[in-house]
Amino acid sequence: MKTSFKAFLEKQNVKPSAKLYFIDAMSAMAMGLFASLLIGTILGVFGKIWPELTFFSDISTYGIAVSGAAMAVAIANALKAPPLVMYSMLIVGYAANMLGGAGGPLAVFLLSIPTVEIGKLVSKTTKVDILVTPAVTVLAGCGLSAVLAPVIKVLAGYVTFFIDFAMTQQPLVMGILVSVVIGVALTLPISSAAICAALVLSGMGANGTEGLALAGGAAVAGCCAQMIGFAVMSFRDNRWGGLVSVGVGTSMLLMPNIIRNPRIWIAPTLVSAITGPLATCVFGLKMYGAAINSGMGTCGFLGPIGIILGWFGGEYPTAVGAMDWIGLALICFIIPAVGCLLLDALFRKIGWIKDGDLTLGT
């Protein structure tokens, strides 16, 4: 019986694994969020700068509206769902995101995975697959959303409230913690962008405090420290191609190198522990753009772009001055580059890092 059930799971392509659910699915979810909410937000800024360009404002509205559906379909694609299951996730993603409120992205992530697997179990098992598979998928997903999404909304709200409160009470400690944790998540094969979106690291908190905005700034600092830091450290091994691939692409490219020599990770992580509190306590770097930007770092320069869009998007509560621009440049680019180069030189001198340790593709 056990063997036949296992064979059935194999036949339906249901292959549970931590990598599939917590790495592949989360990374795909971030791409869905990017292709809907984030790009819509970026284009929507043109509508705020030039109000007569209502077309761009409309795009922003559309992007926000479909973000839940986009995330769910992206997750379904990562789980290799059959077409009818994948398309049915449009409804499920919308429901989970809407019922999840501020915790919508987290609800979509947690509820889409079991829903896709349920849909895969019934896919092509009947002669009326075109009716059964979508019906089962939508009923299962919307049922789970109706029961669990409001719970996830409340739990996510508690976590977000804690981050908001803790950041306003202890910006130094939380600046270090958020910067280091989100920065490390950026380099790991998980999605720091999805984490920041799920925790809503942007804008005003429920009580009118700016802890979440500061947490978003600290997250940007940590992500930039990892990407710029690794980019400049690896320049002698990878030259200009590596500088662009890591500094504007992703520091995740260096995970195989980190596994072989974990010491190469020390410098960017130490620098993130410096830039995080500088962002929160000295420069007051705040994220008022889309929360997903907080976890993007210099990937397409979307971390700094998110902060800039927040400054001029109509919600930033204070005037933007020269110190804001100086702080942005120092936190996102200059300190990570200089700090990591200095630490890299020290670690090479004591033998912790050698030529070739940061060569991509080795």
Structure description:
The protein is mostly helical and 362 residues long. It folds into two domains: 2-160, no CATH class; 170-349, no CATH class. 74% of the residues lie in helices and 0% in strands. It has helices at residues 2-11, 18-49, 54-78, 83-99, 104-122, 129-169, 171-187, 192-199, 211-233, 235-249, 255-260, 266-282, 302-311, 322-349. Helix 7 packs across helix 9 (211-233), helix 9 (211-233) packs across helix 14 (322-349) and helix 12 packs antiparallel against helix 14 (322-349). The longest helix is centred in the middle third of the chain and has 41 residues, at 129-169. It is globular, with a radius of gyration of 22 Å. The N and C termini lie far apart (45 Å). The mean pLDDT is 91.
Short description:
This protein is an all-alpha fold and 362 residues long. Helix content is 74%, strand content 0%. The chain folds into two domains: 2-160, no CATH class; 170-349, no CATH class.
**Count of alpha and pi helical runs:** 14
Termini separation (Å)? 45 Å
Largest sheet: none
Kindly provide the radius of gyration, computed on alpha-carbon positions and rounded to a whole number of angstroms: 22 Å
Indicate the overall shape.
globular
Topology as a string of helices (H) and strands (E): HHHHHHHHHHHHHH
